[in-house]
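Tutorial handout. Part one gives the primary structure; part two gives the three-dimensional structure as tokens.
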Amino acid sequence: MLNRVKYRLKFTKSGNVRFIGHLDLMSLFNMAIKRAKLPIAYSEGFNPHQVLSFALPLSLGYHSNGEYLDMQLTKPMDCKELVDSLNANMPDGIRIVAAGRIADTDKNAAAIISSCAYRVILPEAHRIKHDDAKNFIAQEQIIISKKTKKNLADVDIAPDIFEFVPKANVLVEEILLRISAGPERSVRADSVMKALFAFAGEEYPEHGLTYVREEMYSDVQGKKPLLGTEA
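Part two.
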């Protein structure tokens, strides 16, 4: 069996490419890796595939400055060379901004993620009162209906909101949001915003807000990004 070297990559997703789903994103990386002629490791068995693992699929239409991917290579590479090789084969909207080698014993990013930071931009037509935003996050409980495998269930998402900062004077123009994400607990950014609009007595604009995922963390305090060293 070949020796394998693990790397973690941080990349952006924006522009028109934000409308491609997770499976298409995986195919895009598969093709870019082949074109870059990286020494990618393959799984064993009858249907070998590139050994890649994404931290957390991004909701369709969201922008991101902080997506993560783990990959295994059959030999070491200089991190800058790895970044440059992939970027030369990526479409507009996808850019690798950092890469770092991780230990063989390190868990994949998907297994250690605990929280994600988002920036939510509210256009002028869909802004809400600052007081409503403050009163919303001051609630002891924030109940939403969440889909389970069998049906809908009422869930309190207040413990999943670690940071909620509305930026405004009178009407909220932007919200900085950090919420739970990962195998233990997870909540969607748009679920928080839908609850906020319902609390404020306003209709949620299904396609009216701009969501930007800024970072992913391995802690709930937002101090440990999944990759701290840029190439």
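Part three, for discussion. Helices lie at 22-36, 79-87, 109-112, 130-137, 189-199. The chain has a mean pLDDT of 94.
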